[in-house]
Amino acid sequence: MTIKAGKERSRLDPEPMPRRDFLGLSALFAFAGSMLFAVTGMLRLPKAAVLSSPSKKFSVTLPDSLATGEPFVPPGRSVALFRDAEGAYAISTTCTHLGCVVKASAGEFECPCHGSRFSADGSVTKGPAPQALPWLKVTASGAGLIVDEGTTVPAGSKVTV
Amino acid sequence: MSTAGSPNSAMRGFLDNLRAAPRRILDSAMRGGAPKTDRTRSTFVFGNVFLHLHSVRTHRWSLRWSTTMGLGIASTAGFLITLVTGLLLMFYYKPYPDAAYDSIKDIHFVVPTGRFIRNIHRWAANVMVIAVLLHMARAFYTAAYRKPREFNWLVGWGLLVTTLGLSFTGYLLPWDQLAYWAITIGANIAQSPREVTDALGVTQSFDPGGLQRLLLLGSDTVGEEALIRFYLLHVMILPLALVLLMAVHFWRIRKDGGIARPSDAEKRLGPSAGDTYPVFTEAPAKTYQLAAIVRGKTSAVGSGPENTVPSMPHLFYAELAVLMITVFVCVALALVSDAPLKELANPAVPENPAKAPWYFLGLQEMVSFSAFMGGMGIPTIVLIGLGLIPFLDREESGTGEWFGGAGGWPLVRTSILVGFVAALGVETFAIRFGWIREWLPSVPQLVITLINPGTVLTLIYAAYSIWLLRRHNSTRAAALGLFTCFLCGFVLLTIIGSYFRGPNWTFFWSPTDWARH
Amino acid sequence: MKKTKHLLLWSSVGVLLLLIFAAFDENMLKEWRRIQGAASAQDAPIDVGLRQVVTPGLNVSDRCVSCHIGMGAGEQGILGPGVVAPHKPIPHQPSEFGCTICHGGQGRATEKRDAHGDVRFWPAPMLPVRYSFAGCGTCHAPLHVPNLSALEKGRGAFERLDCLACHRLDGRGGTLRPGGGGMEGPNLSYTGFKGYDPLWHEKHTRHSEEAQRGPWKDSFGPVGDADRESLAVFLASRIGAPTLIEAKALFHSVGCLGCHKVSGVGGDAGPDLSRSGEKDPGQLDFTHVPGQATFSNWLAEHFRSPASTVAGSQMPILGLSEDQIELLTMYMLSLRRRELPGAYLPKDRIQATRFGAREFAIDGATIFSAFCAGCHGADGRGRRYPGTQPFPAITNPDFLSIASDAFISETVTRGRPGRKMLAWGEKDGGLRPDEVRSVVGYLRQLGGGVAQQPDPSPARWVKGDASAGKRIFAAFCAGCHGKNGEGGEGPALNNKVLLSAATDRFLVETIGKGRRATAMAGFSISSPVRPALSKGEIEALVSFIRTWEAK
Q1: Where are the domains of chain B?
Q2: Chain C CB contacts of B312 below 8 Å
Q3: For a 10 Å CB count at each end of chain C, is N or C smaller?
Q4: Are the CB atoms for C540 and C466 separated by under 8 Å?
């Protein structure tokens, strides 16, 4: 920006207040705005839109021979399914402490990583785990069940089969 | 350090510091103050590590659109856009043959903004190649390679080669039919010196062609070794090389005295639009301390060119404007045209016609006559010729002028005609009548290597150039003619290779005549 | 400077507007978003977002479920536009292998046309819905499929005997047991895989005898042996894809395997068809194919007129009806058996590829109609295609009465080297000895049960004048059998295998009596254009023909 040279001035002297450069300022703002919009849009890219792990919902058929209180773990899933007189239910086998897979047995769950223990209904009996194992949503579908690992239900919810 | 203060004042002092911290943090980053005076404008530029590659003041001649057309900045902008979009693509691209194609499909269909970013990347790459070529033409036609800028011309030459290398290595990454067969051809062109060594019978002991191909592919076929090499070159080695060369290139512009301008530039500029005050009104308060007295010209320190303006804001507004125009062009093209992706690469099904990227189609046209000459011989001649230009044209008249030097625009105009007509003539002959091997099937390959449309055209251009040299008694005239001829030949051959060559590289007037579809 | 500022301002504004449009386009204008927005679930609103079925072992990432929401794993009760409906009941859930394994198409795409594969550079477009069962062919190799008449016989028996009253089969029939307890009889749609009780008839009969009332007493009756055999063949073919089996049965009825190989078994005259269901429509020539440029249209037109569809094809026009073409097109589309990781190989495919189980039934009738009928005719009376030499009648009673089983077996096994009859018993992808035996037996049956008349004479007993025979041959035989016996209208007589297998009596009888209803007359009877040949002349001919044996 330049100023009128009315008299001999030194370039080291402070300049008088110039007129606002609307054109320049709006150009710079437009530039900054468009770049900001672009950067915000680009920040969306790293967040994956679709996960490559298997779906959280899956179907399963309990074997007829499953005894009351005996866990059934579908292969490849961190869920233990049970069936008793009131119906079928599913308890997550992901330890609520730091995510290890607990070992399900009739009567209790045991976590090998830091020794947490849970009773048959998932409540914590011992160990650093802060919360009970969540119960997962089960719906009946035809002859089998559909388990939804993504939805938790209050402990004690069972589905009649 | 508090000396006599009581604990109370120390505590107050601490809290005051805590309160003042945010403003002081900001101030520590902006030490010079807002760039409102020429002094603060200067410190704004040379006090910043990124900006101080620029000179503090820019000559008004350099800022004229007609001087440079902003092509250098456009090339840089193209690079920056490909850099940013390329970095984003690296989040999802997988450089292994089993996964590459699918990862590109994922980028296109499911990655948020993926299709858009990939399209921008591809268009920006093309914009960059075009800008680089136009920029080189601009630098040539304004004779900006003359003393003292010869070295910078060579650095620019290196940038041209690196840019083409970047585009070529990126071409393989989608691993589709287009990519696979284009690179198969490229690798075989790298092996084309065998055409000569075979004809001479020395391939067993001396095989530069085979070595080049092996280095390029890491194997004897285009496979996962080639892909990982091309990926490494494309995302790491070549961008680093480019950035280093760019740094040297920009630095050299400054040290060579800015953008080349004609000797009467000051006069032609005339008075500036607004009033400027002289650069130095009084003896500067600060002097440079002389460490030693050296001979020869140094960068101008003591004298002040009168026709300069502060880079901040004049140059920076211009750079930003060119950047945003380039961004606009890339984004607009990306919205309307998808980056190509054909079927998954299939070594058993050659693409027919298998075409190189567009900037190599002119070469491929010549390669269709002789692999060695078209692929290595003539490109080498052209590159060596380009590199030698500043060392063969030592004249001084016309530096910084468009079409400056002996001959001027009329010569260039005539050369455009000569360039196109000669190329058209040679191509028409070859398309209509075929070439030597069709008339004399048993002729040795070496004959065809030496006598083919590419070499014939080169000889025609060379003869014309020498004629110009003698007629105008000027190497600049010869250079103007030769460069223009090659440029036009390149354009024509690229057009023919793009639009008029179909399956088996046969000539077709229109793609609808191709047998298959 | 002002100009520069304007350039910066307007290009920045332009960029901003373009980016805003791009953001809008990506987020609002996507079809899958619109569909998910219009859909709702019974118990909870559905989450809007891309969905996919992933099977890493098969490199499957199918995003079809982003629009076809109801087909996702565990989705129930999704309401909305028709596209969100759940999948029809099928043996494999979409979540097991994804969708594209069976249906084709481009699973990674999220736009309709791209996902259905109706775009230029996708080589495997989705199968048209009416051909969906062809997708089973990606993994499965249905075994022991008979020819169509045997299949129809079995299906006819099943329907005639009213098995559908209690049993469900291919979506029809079956009754619910009154008073609860499921269906009366098990679903027989998958007996090809699951098998069934081999003692079913005994148990059914016992139930029927013991029952006091109800369907067992009133509806069941004993089933005859022939019907039980047909039923066994029929039930062995039930794999839950009835149209595909019908198509394959038709394929085994028109003699295609005589020229083409499928899964390593068949002839060499035509190309191997094992993966011909995977052709890339972008590589096909549609200039003579009417209608849409789809692969199935190309296949259908190829059946109608092979030579105009494929340049240089030697396949004759078979004269198939449009229904037959439709079925055969389905079968061709099913020939898409790709390489699979071991864990995904179905049992039938392992049986076929590793244990040599046959995909065609090995009874004589099926083998004949699958391998021989294309050249020799469905009735074995020979066939003639324009531009090729005619194929002989092999069920001709005059032939069967003098040809021994050994002769016919030898012919089938060793073929006619240098001619179109392949050595079916010796080549890779040919027939096994027991299969050759079955087809020989079937030939006799087809010819009317004609047995060979006993021949007490030794294999070589003729002692005639070969030079006289040469003259007679040139006069009477060369016109059809070629100057040097190389064949023409008639079969080649100078063929090594023919001469080594044929007895002298066979040759003498053939020349003398001829073959009824063919161009080969009986030369021991005179005709208006030539005299009868005497016994000596016939023996001279045979001696001359035998001289070709040495060469």
Answers
A1: 16-44, 54-272+307-351, 354-517
A2: none
A3: C
A4: yes
Cβ–Cβ < 8 Å for C416, C497: yes
Phi/psi of residue C361, nearest 5 degrees: -65, 145
pLDDT tens for each residue of C319-338? 899 999 999 999 999 999 99
Whole-structure pTM value = 0.88
Partners of residue B109 in chain C, C-beta under 8 Å: 63, 108-111, 114
pLDDT, average across residues A76-80: 90
**Interface residue A24 vs chain C (CB under 8 A):** yes
Interchain proximity A9–B281, CB inside 8 Å = yes
Task: Measure CB to CB from residue A31 to each of B281, B285, B324 and give the nearest one.
Answer: B324
Q: Which residues of A touch B285 (CB under 8 A)?
A: 12
Q: What is the pLDDT of residues C209-268, one digit of tens each?
A: 888 887 788 878 889 999 999 999 999 999 999 999 999 999 999 999 999 999 999 999
Q: What is the pLDDT confidence band of residue A3, given thresholds at 50, 70 and 90?
A: very low
Listed residue (B370, B322, B462, B384) closest to B161, CA to CA: B384
Q: How far is CA C223 from each of CA A144, C121, C158, C206, rounded to the nearest angstrom?
A: 37, 56, 10, 13
What are the pLDDT digits (tens) for C343-382?
999 999 999 999 999 999 999 999 999 999 999 999 999 9
Could you tell me if C235 and C227 are in contact, meaning their C-beta atoms sit under 8 angstroms apart?
A: no
Asked whether the beta carbons of residue B327 and residue C283 sit closer than 8 angstroms, the reply is no
Using pLDDT thresholds of 50, 70 and 90, give the confidence band for residue A38.
Answer: very high
What pLDDT shows up at residue B270?
75
**Average pLDDT of chain A, as a whole number:** 86
Size of interface A-B (CB pairs under 8 A): 62
Kindly tell me if the per-residue pLDDT of B153 is higher than 90: yes
Instruction: Give the distance from residue A33's alpha carbon to the nearest chain C alpha carbon, in angstroms.
Output: 7
The mean pLDDT value for B188-203 works out to: 88
Sequence-ordered list of residues with C-beta below 8 angstroms from that of B29, at least 6 positions apart, any chain: none
Torsional sign, CA A24, A30, A36, A38: negative
CB atoms within 10 A of CB C186: 16
Q: Would you list the domain boundaries of chain A?
A: 57-153
The band of B274, judged by pLDDT with boundaries at 50, 70 and 90, is low
**A52 with C54: Cβ contact below 8 A:** yes
Show the tokens assigned to A126.
């011992």
Distance from CA of B72 to the nearest CA of C (A): 16
pLDDT of A97 over the 50 cut: yes
Annotation: CATH topology of B54-272+307-351: Cytochrome Bc1 Complex; Chain C (1.20.810)
- Cross-chain residue pair B281–A47, CB shorter than 8 Å: no
Residues of C in contact with B332 (CB under 8 A): 14, 18
